[in-house]
Write a structure and sequence with these properties.
The structure holds 2 protein chains of 2 kinds. In chain A, 35% of the residues lie in helices and 29% in strands. By secondary structure, chain A is α/β, with parallel strands linked by helices. Chain B is mainly alpha-helical. In chain B, helix 1 crosses helix 10 and helix 16 (353-363) packs antiparallel against helix 17. The chains are: A alpha/beta, B mainly alpha. The interface between A and B is medium-sized, with 25 and 22 residues.
Chain lengths: 305, 418
C-alpha cells in the first residue's frame, strides 16, 4: 500500500497556507512529518483525513483517489478528542464500531489495547478522572482500536513522560513491523530518528526536505568531516585550522567533542588528512560528518531560512 | 444507516444514564399519578363536585356549628335594603347595623372586612382597608341595593315584584348537544399541550446544541467526522434527543392520564377539561408535536456547531429562540380564534404548524386535505432542516475560535458545491 500526497494546496481566508505539499509513504514504514509550529503539518494531516478539502492537488492510495471513509484508519488529532465525561471503554467501543467493527470485536480490541497500554484498570472510569498522560494513552488506544491499516498520529509524544513515551515508541515500532502505514508528526527529532525511514519537512507550507533519512543525512554531510584533536580545546583547534588549512577546509561549527569542517572544492579527505599528519597534528578522531536530524531541522526550518 | 444507529444508541445511552433525567421523569410521573389518586384515598367531597364517599360521615354533621363572626358593618339609617335581602347575600349573623362612624372605624381597626353606608338607592359608601384583586363585597351590596330599589319601585307603583322578577330572569333549560368540537372543553388541554411542546423544543433543543458544542469543545468532533458522515452524527444526535424527550413526556403523560382515568369518578370529572383527551387529539399532538420538535432540533444542532464554547451557545441560538417565542405567543393569543386567518397561515408554516395545526384540529374546523398538506410541508421541512443542519454541522464543527457567522458559512458551502 502506498499513500501519495501530490501537490496539495490550501488557503484559509484568501491566504495560502500550503503551497503544494507532496510526499509518499509505504506500508511497513513510518513517515515523520516535521516542521515548526504553524508550518502546515496538522493542515496536511487534516486534508489527508478529509477533515478539510484541499484547494487543489491529490491524495492517492495505490494510485487511486484516497477515500478515508472507505479505509480502516486510525487518526489521532493533535488536540486529542474524546468525551471527558463518558466511560472509557464505552467510547472506545463506539469509535471502533463507527469504523466498522462488530460489537464483540470492538469490546475485545478495546480491552486488549487498554491492557497493552497498561491502563486496563481504568476501562470503566470516566476519561476526565485520569491523569493527562493516561488520557493520552487512552487516546492512542482509541486510535488503534479498529485495527487500522493506516495510522496517522499528530504530535503523539507531546506531554508524555519518558516511561509512557517508551510504551508509545514500542507500539509504533510494532505497527511498522506489522506492515502498517504510519505517518506521524513530531517536534521531538529523536523519536523521528528512531523509527522513521522517511521524513518530510514542511516549512511555511512547503516541503523543504523529503526522502529517506539515511540518504538525507549523507547528502547533508557530504564533503564535511569531523575532527577531534588531542590536547586542544575546540576553540584552539578551530583557530589552528583557520590559520593553517584555510585553503583546504572551512570551519562550519562544532560537535560536543570536536569541530565540523567543509572541504574546499580543490581538496579531498585523503589530502587533508595527509596535510594534518604532515603538520604533526595529534588526531584522536577524523571521519565523515553526518548531521543529526535536529541539526538538519534547524538548518532547514530555522529562523534564517 | 448502520453508523446512524450506532450514533443513536450512543447518544441515547447518554440520556438514559443521566440520573437527573431519569429521576426527574420518574418523580414527576409518580407525583402526578399520586396526586390524582388522592380523591380515592382521602375524602375530598368538600372540594369536589362528588357525593361523600360511602361510610364517610360528612364533616358538617360531625362538627359543631361554627361560631359565626361579624364581618360587615352596615349603616342603613333609612332602612332602604330589607334585612332578609342582606341575610341572603351575606349570611345570618355576619353583619351588624352600626352608625356611619362605627362602619369606618371598624374597618380601620381591622375588626371587620368591610363597611357599607347606604345613602339612597343610587348611592352608597364602601369602606375596605386593602382592596384585593378578588374583592366582591361591594358588588354584592350594589346588587342588593338594585334589588331593593326595584322592590321599592314595584311597591310604589303597585306592581308584583316577584312576578316581574320571574319574567325578567326567566330560566331557560338548554339541552346542549355538541355535534362538532367543544372549544370550551378542548381549550385547556390544547393550552397545556402548546406549553408542553414549547418546553420540549426549548429544553431539549438547547441540550442538543450544547451537546454538539461540547464535541467541538473537547475536539472529539475531529475524530468523529473522520469516522462517519456528519449526517449520521447529526441525525443520530437529534433523533436520540427526540426519543428521549418523547419518552419522558410519554411516561409522565401515561402516568397522569392513566391515574386520572382510574380515579375519574372520584374527581367527579372535574379535570376532564384538561385530562380527558380524545385519542385523535393525542395522535395529532404526537405527529405535529414531534415533527415540530425534530424541525427545530436539527436547527439547534446546526447552530450549536457554530460556536466552540458552551457559554456561547445561548448567543448562537438567540435568533431561533426569538422565532420560537413569537410562534408561542401568537399561538397562545390566537387560541380563542383558531379559525382566524393568522392561525390558518401559521398552521402551514413548518416553524409554527406544530402548534397552530394542532390547535385547529383540536378546536377549529379543518379539512383532512389541509392537515395532509401541512403534514407534508412539515415532513419536507424536517428533511430540509436535517440536510441543511448536517451541512452547517460539517462546515461549522471544525471552525474553532470565534463564533462562525452563518452568512460566511453559507458562502463557503456555495463555494464548495461549485
Amino acid at each position: 500500500m502506498e499513500l501519495e500526497v501530490k501537490n496539495v494546496k490550501k488557503s484559509f481566508g484568501g491566504k495560502e497556507v500550503l503551497h503544494g505539499i507532496s510526499f509518499q509513504v509505504k506500508s511497513g514504514t513510518a513517515l515523520g512529518l516535521l516542521g515548526r509550529n504553524g508550518a502546515g503539518k496538522t493542515t496536511t494531516m487534516r486534508i489527508i483525513m478529509d477533515v478539510f478539502k484541499g484547494d487543489s492537488g491529490e491524495i492517492l492510495l495505490d494510485g487511486k483517489p484516497f477515500e478515508p471513509a472507505k479505509e480502516r484508519i486510525g487518526y489521532m488529532p493533535e488536540e486529542r478528542g474524546l468525551y471527558p465525561k463518558r466511560i472509557i471503554l464505552e467510547q472506545m467501543v463506539y469509535l471502533a464500531r463507527l469504523r466498522g467493527l462488530g460489537k464483540s470485536e470492538a469490546v475485545e480490541n478495546a480491552k486488549n489495547w487498554l491492557k497493552r497500554l497498561e491502563i486496563e484498570e481504568y476501562a470503566n472510569r470516566k476519561l476526565e478522572t485520569l491523569s493527562k498522560g493516561n488520557q493520552q494513552k487512552v487516546q492512542l488506544a482509541a486510535t488503534l482500536v479498529s485495527n487500522p491499516n493506516i495510522v496517522i498520529l499528530d504530535e503523539p509524544f507531546s506531554g508524555l513522560d519518558p516511561v509512557n513515551s517508551q510504551i508509545l515508541k514500542d507500539v509504533v515500532r510494532d505497527l511498522i513491523q506489522d506492515g502498517k502505514l504510519v505517518i506521524f508528526s513530531s517536534h521531538q527529532m529523536s523519536y523521528v530518528e528512531e523509527f522513521c525511514e522517511n521524513v518530510a519537512m514542511i516549512h511555511h507550507g512547503q516541503v523543504v526536505l523529503q526522502g529517506e533519512l539515511k540518504q538525507i543525512k549523507k547528502e547533508m554531510g557530504r564533503n564535511q568531516i569531523t575532527l577531534v584533536c588531542e590536547g586542544s580545546t575546540i576553540e584552539e583547534t578551530k583557530q589552528f585550522i583557520r590559520q593553517r588549512f584555510a585553503t583546504m577546509v572551512q570551519v562550519m561549527g562544532n560537535t560536543r567533542e570536536g569541530i565540523i569542517l567543509k572541504l574546499q572544492e580543490n581538496c579531498n579527505k585523503e589530502s587533508f588528512l595527509s596535510a594534518l599528519l604532515q603538520a604533526q597534528v595529534k588526531i584522536s578522531q577524523f571521519g565523515d560528518y553526518e548531521p543529526s536530524l535536529n541539526e538538519i531541522f534547524v538548518m532547514k526550518a530555522g529562523d534564517n531560512q | 444507516m448502520k453508523n446512524f444507529v450506532i450514533v443513536l444508541g450512543f447518544e441515547l445511552r447518554e440520556y438514559l444514564k443521566n440520573k437527573i433525567f431519569v429521576a426527574t421523569t420518574l418523580l414527576i410521573a409518580l407525583l402526578g399519578a399520586a396526586f390524582l389518586c388522592l380523591p380515592s384515598l382521602v375524602d375530598m367531597s368538600k372540594y369536589l363536585p362528588v357525593p361523600p364517599k360511602e361510610g364517610v360521615v360528612p364533616e358538617e354533621e360531625e362538627e359543631k356549628p361554627e361560631k359565626i363572626e361579624v364581618e360587615y358593618y352596615i349603616c342603613d339609617q333609612q332602612s332602604l335594603i330589607p334585612e332578609n335581602l342582606i341575610q341572603e347575600i351575606f349570611g345570618e349573623g355576619t353583619y351588624k347595623y352600626v352608625s356611619q362612624e362605627e362602619a369606618r372605624e371598624g374597618v380601620l381597626s381591622e375588626e371587620i372586612t368591610a363597611g357599607f353606608v347606604i345613602h339612597s338607592f343610587d348611592e352608597m359608601d364602601y369602606y375596605v382597608l386593602n382592596k384585593g384583586m378578588l374583592d366582591v363585597e361591594s358588588q354584592m351590596m350594589q346588587e342588593a341595593l338594585v334589588v331593593a330599589g326595584q322592590m321599592d319601585y314595584c311597591q310604589k307603583h303597585n306592581l308584583d315584584y316577584a312576578e316581574l322578577n320571574d319574567i325578567y330572569n326567566k330560566k331557560i333549560n338548554v339541552n346542549e348537544q355538541i355535534l362538532g368540537k367543544d372549544t370550551e372543553s378542548n381549550f385547556w388541554y390544547c393550552y397545556a399541550f402548546e406549553i408542553l411542546v414549547f418546553m420540549m423544543i426549548v429544553l431539549y433543543g438547547q441540550m442538543i446544541a450544547v451537546s454538539v458544542t461540547n464535541e467541538k469543545s473537547n475536539r472529539s468532533i475531529e475524530v468523529l467526522v473522520t469516522s462517519t458522515t456528519p449526517t449520521s452524527l447529526l441525525f443520530g444526535k437529534v433523533i436520540a434527543g427526540a426519543i428521549a424527550s418523547v419518552a419522558q413526556v410519554a411516561v409522565i403523560l401515561v402516568a397522569i392520564l392513566g391515574s386520572y382515568g382510574l380515579n375519574r369518578k372520584s374527581w367527579g370529572g372535574s379535570l376532564d377539561m384538561v385530562l380527558d383527551i380524545p385519542a385523535e387529539v393525542l395522535l395529532t399532538f404526537a405527529f405535529f408535536g414531534v415533527g415540530g420538535f425534530l424541525f427545530y432540533a436539527f436547527l439547534y444542532g446546526a447552530l450549536g456547531a457554530l460556536v466552540s464554547k458552551t457559554e456561547d451557545v445561548s448567543k448562537a441560538i438567540s435568533g431561533l429562540m426569538t422565532v420560537i417565542m413569537v410562534v408561542y405567543f401568537l399561538s397562545l393569543t390566537q387560541l380563542s380564534n383558531v379559525d382566524g386567518i393568522i392561525v390558518k397561515i401559521l398552521s402551514y408554516l413548518p416553524f409554527s404548524s406544530y402548534s397552530a395545526m394542532f390547535a385547529r384540529i383540536a378546536m377549529g374546523s379543518v379539512s383532512l386535505v389541509e392537515v395532509l398538506i401541512s403534514g407534508v410541508i412539515l415532513i419536507a421541512s424536517i428533511i430540509g432542516a436535517g440536510w441543511l443542519g448536517a451541512s452547517i454541522y460539517r462546515m461549522g464543527t471544525l471552525r474553532y475560535g470565534n463564533p462562525v457567522k452563518l452568512s460566511n458559512l453559507f458562502k463557503e458551502m456555495r463555494n464548495e458545491n461549485r
